[in-house]
Amino acid sequence: MRETEERTTRKRGGHGLLIALVIFVWLAFTAAAILFVDGRTVRFYIYGDEDMTVEYGSTFQDPGVYAVTSGRLFGETEKHLPVQTLGAVDTNKLGTYTLRYMARFAFTDFSTERRVTVVDTTPPVIELKHIEGYVPTWMSGYTEEGYSAIDAVDGDLTDRVESVKLDDRVRYTVTDSAGNTASVERLLPDASYQTPVIRLLGEEHLVMDAGLWYEDAGAELTDKLGTDLSDKLVVEGGVIPWIAGDYQITYSITNDFGETISATRTISVLPVALPEEVTPTEKTIYLTFDDGPGPYTQRLLDVLDRYGAKATFFVTDQDPRYIDLIGKAYKAGHSIGVHTMSHDYYKIYASELAFFEDFFTMEEIIKQQTGEYTRLFRFPGGSSNTISRFNEGIMSRLTRAMNDMGYQFYDWNVYSGDAGETSKTEQIAKNIKEGCAEHRVSVVLQHDIKDYSVAAVESVLQWGLNNGYSFKALQLDSPTAHHGVNN
């Protein structure tokens, strides 16, 4: 009986295990069937955008995700599954990063992704430097005070900055490797860049008579800041005051950027009119003496005074000991003319400038002696001289210039022969008398530095007066006895 009960009990226990196993299998099958039919899986929900863009150097905060299960029959569960995030974003390095989110369900791993791109859209920063008290000027222009350019990605871009000077400002521009461009401007002071104006001193158009000299009044220039720039003016052109014509003098200045301003003065040099030549109606002898005064000039003045005759002295400064005799001759009523100071042919005929420097010096001496300038002169060697041919055309140029200035030059039509042909007083007197006898009006050439020529004058005076001649001093309207110019 007891065995039977034990067998019965074992049968019941085994039967229970079998039932439990059947139930488990059924439940598992049922669950699997439900899962298969329900199609349950994992669904991810991403906060924010799946594709995100963030700025270089910024702080990146992952918006995150959550995961739930979802099926066709029972829908989504409310319970969130644990989610693991794989990957990271480095905002200090440009590029695209992938964040992978993973969740496990029913022994299966599920995942989704987010792409994060780190970009550079921020332009560089340009910082302008300033020098305390610095003011640019029109002359020097703007001298760069300095600047810097820094980019978050590329670093120092100062050497890539381009600067362009505009009318009243400087524009600075720089572009980084991502194509971001920064631009700033520096405003320049208005006063410093205003173009100054050159102011002519004196008349803008000056009209003057041809004469011994011209002194230009000049010009001045002060910029808008009050800086005097007059000493930086470049003067071009000039005036030859003894030659008639129109001249220009230009004052200019160029700044450091090549911009030039200028002002021009026009000078019109007009020829001085000479009186018309008047031929005396009576027989006239014009005694003229070159190269003095000298040791025999006083004796000559005494002889002329005794006979009441007047003469003309073309003077030099070859012997300053007798220079006061110019004033004595002038006060005695004789005419004074320039013959040159040095009487050095190769010096005075070297150029027009050389001639006039010598000529004007003698004019000053004459003014000191007489109180006024003269307008009478005689070329050394006469206007027909050929010794000047070492400078071709010099005599033609000089005769024109002298006429323009209103100077009258005199040659001669009677030659005494005292310049080397003879040193005999009688022959000199004879030459003069014979020469004058051929002319109604005679201009006689002698030299008062030759004693034998001065000694012949009294004989000539006596002969002339006895033959109805008068002895006069040359004036601007006297006969000039011009020779032909040979150079």
Describe, in plain words, how this protein is organized in 3D:
It is a single chain. This protein is of the alpha/beta class and 487 residues long. It has helices at 2-38, 190-193, 297-307, 324-331, 345-348, 352-370, 394-404, 425-437, 451-454, 457-466; strands at residues 41-46, 51-55, 65-71, 75-76, 84-86, 95-105, 108-119, 125-128, 147-151, 155-156, 162-165, 169-175, 181-187, 199-200, 205-209, 219-220, 234-237, 245-254, 260-270, 284-290, 311-315, 335-338, 376-377, 408-409, 414-415, 441-447, 470-471. The longest helix is centred in the first third of the chain and has 37 residues, at 2-38.
Tally the beta strands.
27
Structural class: alpha/beta
Q: What kind of sheet is the major sheet?
A: 6 strands, parallel
Radius of gyration: 59 Å
Defining traits:
487 residues, alpha/beta, six-stranded parallel β-sheet, four-stranded mixed β-sheet, rod-shaped
